[in-house]
Every structure is written in C-alpha cells, then in structure tokens.
Write a sequence for this structure.
C-alpha cells in the first residue's frame, strides 16, 4: 500500500487521529479516501466544513517532501498496516497512522516492555529509583520505554543503556529534533542501542500539547507502566490514566508521605489504581518473568559500534549548548507568550518551583501547566535547575 497516501491522511489539518480512524473504517484505505469526492466525504461521521476542506485538498507535495526527508535522513516510516508496526501499539484505540523511526525497533511482541515515567522536577530519591528499576529490568531483558525528558524519563532511558539493555524514546517532536537539547548525547546513544520514534514528521518542533498526546504511545507500546515520583497533578499521572484506559498494568513506587512530589504515586497505590513496586522483582513476578537483581549495580559502557551518523537538529527555538556553565541565551526576537504561559511564569518568579506548586498557586490543570512550562523552556523564559524551575529573564 502506497505510503504517500498514509502520509497525506496523517497530515490533514484539523483531522484528529480518531477522526481519521473513523474515515478509514468507512473507506478502507487512505488511497480510497484520497480518491473520494465531496459528496462521498460529506456523509462521514463527525465531518465539518474544516475537515471536509482538508480531505478535499488532494495536493501530495507535502507528503512527498516528507518521504524525501526521511530517505535523506535514514528515517523509517511505518504505516498502521505495515507488518513491522509494533503490535501492542496497533491495539490501542487511537494508534498513530504513521510512525517515524530512527534506530532499530525491538521485538515488542516477543519481549516484555515496561514504560517508566515521572516528574521532571525529581529528587535524588526519584532519580535513584528510576535508575534502579530501569537498569535491573533492562538487564533481565525488558524493553524500557520512556520520553527522554529531563528528570525521571531521561534517567530511565540512560540506566537501561548502562545496563546493556534496549530502550525506546518517544518524542514530542520530529525524530531528527532533539528535545530537550541537553539530551543530545543520550539521544545518540539510544539510536545505537534502541530506537527513537514519533508520530510527528521530520523537522517538527516540540509543542506543549504534543507531550500529553505522545504519552499514549509510551503506554501503548508497553505491557505495564511504572510511575516514579509524581505529584498529585502531573503528566505522569496522565500516562497512568492512559495506561489504565488501554487495559495495561500500572505500577507505582511509594514515596515519602511528606513530599508533594510523591503524592501522586502514593495516591495511585492507595486507590488501588497501581500495584506497589518496591523492587524490580515485583514487576517481573507479575508477568511470571522471574526475579530481578535486588541490588542496583553499575554496568560497564557498551562497546561502541561504528554507525552511520544522522544529523540531529535542535529546535529553532532552542539555545545552543554553551561551553561555559552560564545559562544559554537565545538571540532576540523571543517568542510571544500566551496568557496561561504568563501566569505560569509569574508563579515561578514568585518562588513556586515545581509543577505541583505551580498547579496549586495558579489553580490551572496540570496538563496546562506542563504545556506552558515546556513552551517557556523552549523560549528560555524559564529553566529547570536542581532546585526546580527558575525564571531566566523578564517577559
């Protein structure tokens, strides 16, 4: 089946993934949708003027450009009906129509896959727990899936590599765009010993709303999701909810009852939404996979193989990493901020340095706060430090 029509359908503006799945149920193939006329398309469920206009736009220039970019950068494209498309992801309610892949996809059907998620504003306790579980599970042959974000996600991806295991990072940008830019070396290592995947075409810059959306891919690829150190309102809890909706298992690492950053995990356990995980063996035993190592250990670096180097671009809104320790300064003009982003920035300036604290101060939904902080980071209005978020300069 021609990939060009899958790319065309997947990039229709205003047409959500779920809407496109409904269209495919009516027409069978993307090519049939492309060939359909206005009269046929106007009878689709949930159609409106905007969606009808998008489906009536038959120009294939942009899909062809995507194909050329993927060939040039060595990016693999997998459509939903491709035999290589990960089977666990295909089974969720809204799988991506097209996946972009760099590196080598592991065998999600034959191996146990566990996603590890948590807050970006994590403590040393959270980092230790993420490394402990990811390293030992990877050593036992589990695929570790995460989002390569700062904090818990990146720690899990890195520990899996140090254990000699396989890890997959799901991005909220194109697979040729490194975000956060601090994880450029980590991304290169993942490409050698796993895969970086996304539903966004090459060159797509990170947007705040991309990250909650991509979480369904993280959980959809995994048999179980482990939540490590999450406040009671956080993106990690969105992932836990998604995993439950997808019929997947959820585990949580218990935390200090006096720490706001652990409140979400503790609540998941208390409500029975997640199984308590104190050791990697708790997760492995759930799947009858034996026992993990009971003590965290450090693993020697893997032997580096010579691989084709594919350029990793940083988002246009990203500052280049400086050689000094001074904060990177992005050249003017800076992007404008929305009212929500301004409210979140003001909360950080007032000393609310964690996602949970900003949510409490602003009374905004956690997803809105996470999206705003992401965009403020991209614009270098805030930066994440060891003590939490700090304002970088005035808006």
């Amino acid at each position: 089946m021609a990939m060009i029509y899958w790319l065309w359908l997947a990039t229709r503006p205003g047409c959500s993934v779920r809407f496109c799945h409904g269209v495919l149920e009516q027409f069978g193939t993307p090519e049939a949708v492309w060939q359909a006329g206005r009269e046929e398309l106007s009878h689709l469920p949930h159609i409106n003027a905007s969606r009808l206009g998008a489906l009536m736009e038959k120009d294939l220039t942009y899909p062809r450009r995507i194909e050329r970019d993927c060939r040039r950068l060595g990016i693999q494209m997998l459509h939903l009906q491709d035999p290589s498309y990960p089977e666990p992801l295909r089974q969720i309610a809204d799988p991506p129509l097209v996946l972009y892949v760099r590196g080598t996809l592991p065998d999600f059907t034959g191996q146990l896959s566990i996603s590890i998620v948590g807050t970006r504003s994590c403590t040393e306790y959270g980092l230790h727990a993420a490394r402990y579980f990811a390293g030992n599970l990877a050593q036992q042959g589990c695929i570790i899936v995460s989002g390569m974000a700062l904090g818990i996600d990146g720690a899990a991806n890195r520990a899996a590599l140090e254990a000699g295991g396989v890890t997959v990072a799901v991005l909220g940008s194109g697979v040729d765009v490194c975000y956060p830019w601090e994880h450029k070396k980590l991304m290169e290592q993942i490409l050698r010993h796993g895969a970086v995947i996304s539903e966004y075409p090459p060159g797509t810059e990170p947007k705040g709303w991309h990250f909650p959306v991509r979480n369904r891919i993280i959980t959809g690829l995994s048999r179980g999701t482990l939540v490590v150190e999450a406040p009671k309102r956080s993106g990690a809890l969105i992932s836990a909810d998604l995993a439950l909706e997808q019929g997947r298992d959820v585990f949580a690492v218990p935390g200090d009852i006096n720490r706001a950053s652990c409140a979400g995990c503790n609540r998941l356990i208390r409500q029975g939404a997640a199984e308590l995980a104190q050791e990697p063996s708790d997760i492995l035993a759930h799947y009858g996979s034996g026992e993990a190592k009971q003590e965290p250990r450090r693993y020697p670096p893997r032997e580096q193989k010579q691989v084709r180097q594919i350029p990793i671009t940083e988002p246009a809104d990203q500052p280049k990493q400086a050689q000094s320790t001074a904060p990177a300064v992005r050249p003017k003009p800076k992007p404008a901020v929305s009212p929500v982003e301004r409210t979140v920035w003001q909360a950080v300036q007032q000393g609310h340095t964690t996602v949970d604290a900003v949510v409490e101060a602003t009374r905004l939904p956690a997803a809105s706060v996470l999206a705003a902080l992401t965009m403020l980071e991209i614009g270098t209005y805030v930066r994440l430090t060891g003590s939490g978020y700090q304002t970088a300069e005035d808006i």
